[in-house]
Amino acid sequence: xxxxxxxxxxxxxxxxxxxxxxxxxxxxxxxxxxxxxxxxxxxxxxxxxxxxxxxxxxxxxxxxxxxxxxxxxxxxxxxxxxxxxxxxxxxxxxxxxxxxxxxxxxxxxxxxxxxxxxxxxxxxxxxxxxxxxxxxxxxxxxxxxxxxxxxxxxxxxxxxxxxxxxxxxxxxxxxxxxxxxxxxxxxxxxxxxxxxxxxxxxxxxxxxxxxxxxxxxxxxxxxxxx
Length: 226
Description:
CATH superfamily: P-loop containing nucleotide triphosphate hydrolases
CATH architecture: 3-Layer(aba) Sandwich
Number of strands: 10
Radius of gyration: 17 Å
Number of domains: 1
């Protein structure tokens, strides 16, 4: 029986602006099992990305807790949470966020360097293996401007995996790609989930993309639909 790796408990998130108090998430509760591929699907403005960022330790909730392997990540101080995030969680975003001055290989190695202040030989070997596995063996020395959108997203996936995270969080990873490249990226993510048993959570507005997951949570207006 699979154990829970993430527990989202009573998460609320609101922002204050000139119009008053905007509630983005309202009492969100669910668990994610170890090795599971879970999709959170809903229209734009549903609160999907906000929820993903909270689960990844990037954005503190207004109320509630996120437990990762039993530990409340918002009970950690900022430096400890940042170190935890770099070790345990990988992120794949819609906009690839590659550093333009670095090569594909250097972009992949960046989280490893941040973890240990230098690129260890085993990390360099693993980065090359990841890039080769995703069909980028001839692109290691290319900078992002010389890569297609699909290639840049594959580099971003390798970067998210370099520290061998327990959890991979994907925020509309196919949203900035054409349909063919989108299918390739989803297939690659599914293969990593199945082969490596990496727990994966993907947010999308696309029902067809969400169908690739084992389980789908539907979010609308900051509320989980049952």
